[in-house]
Design goal:
By secondary structure, this protein is of the alpha/beta class. The protein has helices at 14-25, 29-34, 73-83, 100-107, 140-145, 160-171, 211-218, and strands spanning 4-10, 35-41, 60-65, 88-93, 96-97, 115-123, 128-129, 136-139, 173-184, 232-234. The strands form two sheets. It has a six-stranded mixed β-sheet, sandwiched between helices.
Amino acid sequence: MTPVTLVYAYYQNGGMLEQQCRAWSGYSATAKAQIAVVVVDDGSPTVPASAHLTDCGLPVTLYRIHENLVWNVAGARNLGMQQAADGWCLLTDIDHVLMPEDADRLVSTTLNAKCYYTPARKWANGKKLDPHSNTYLLQRDLYWKTGGSDEDYTGWWGAGEPAFRKMIRMLAKGHNLPSVTLTHFGRDDIADASTTEWGRKDSPYYWSHNPALLKKWKAGAYKASHPIRFTWERVS
């Protein structure tokens, strides 16, 4: 069996977190014995994760970032990975659910600690999707060998993810993991499945509007520094 920590950043996603809890509750006894969860509430101003997290039979640890920082995905991921147990972590977005049957497959899979993996993906209606480019099944220490996610990109949408990808590809070999599928929920399925508060590519928050970040990204792979640039607390 392979113990795994699921690591999720949360921001105003109450309905989506409830869906996660329903899935976790349905895990087999075998999966529940091997899986733990870390949730980081990234400063939700009106819909805190604590109000939507229910008992699911898994060890779930909830942290809350005090500041409500725009597009702080990098910081929330860093805090989650800082607090996760050593060993395998599945780092993904809150709208990607590891359903019970795939939890069983995951903990039964033999993995190479020198590599990282990307699970398969499908929509909630069963339609196949390409694998998610910002989901990683990896060892916690490999994550930190990259320096973690670069919090210079906090406040901006877009480039923090490919910047991390460049670095991890310098350190380890990536593999697809077709035996394990994540189920992706869109806003048509659950209204708050993903963040809606700030704009993305077609908005002033798109990272390419920042010349310094654009120059940094084009310079090539680099190790991020100075993670966890905010205050936080453990909630439960």
